[in-house]
Amino acid sequence: MRWTAIPKPCVVGTISRAVTLAKFHMPPEPVCHAVEVRLDKMLADASDWVVQTKAIEAQGLPVIVTVRLASEGGEWRRPDAERWGYFATALEHVAAVDVELQSRLVSQVAASARRLDKTVIVSAHDFVKTPSASALRDLILEALPHATIVKIATLTKTPQDIAVLRELVQQDWGRPLAVMGMGPLAAQSRRELLQAGSALAYGWLDSPAAPGQPSAAELMQIVSELSPAPRR
């Protein structure tokens, strides 16, 4: 599948457990617009992940495969050469992958995604603070040559932190930008940044994958509130 039409806003439902991946089925009332599979959290139990992710895409949902480094909040601690194999396989079979801007693999993953006409989300995470707007702009500019979508996630503790992220998402970067808060104001930030125009918002389908992450159901409710009522 190619992720050719990303709805805006787009709720990404995160799966962190192998049992959820194996049994996932979209109910009649959609629970998300795309699915992120946190492969780093389930590798020991998800030997059939390719078949299972393709089954989700057969239901009409783009799948993002993420193999998150431990240094950026994930559970991958093995060599990057091994991690590359998972990215390469994912790009052959599903719509998108997520790779960290600071990863040694970012250029290799981005080049493969371009060759296969797939989506690559280039992400940066700060679990300590929300950096200054100028520092975050530098990160975005560094990510743009590699990315289909740029994703920035920071710790949000004050309304000013959210304001910094809102300022970023309201600018035109020439491609989609997703910004979100983690921690104490995670839920508030995701509501406000969806309203401001963030391309993606992540919510859990089985267990939170980031500090303070709301459920996908909560985010879908926010999206429904943002959508204009149909004309009679």
What characteristics describe this protein?
20% strand; single chain; alpha/beta; 8 strands; eight-stranded parallel sheet
Can you walk through the features of this model?
- The chain has one domain: Alpha-Beta Barrel (TIM Barrel), CATH 3.20.20.
- Helices cover 37% and strands 20% of the residues.
- It contains eight helices and eight strands; from the N terminus they run βαβαβαβαβαβαβαβα.
- Helix 3 packs parallel to helix 4 and helix 7 packs parallel to helix 8.
- The protein is globular.
Write the layout of secondary structure elements.
Blueprint (H helix, E strand, L loop, with lengths): L9 E6 L2 H6 L10 E5 L10 H10 L4 E4 L13 H14 L2 E5 L5 H11 L2 E8 L6 H11 L5 E7 L3 H11 L7 E6 L3 H11 L3 E5 L11 H11 L6
Parallel strand pairs: 1-2, 1-8, 2-3, 3-4, 4-5, 5-6, 6-7
Helix pairs in contact: 3-4, 6-7, 7-8
Strand residues, percent:
15-25%
Q: Unreliable segments (pLDDT under 50, ≥5 consecutive)?
A: none
Note the quaternary state here: single chain
How many structural domains are formed by the residues? 1
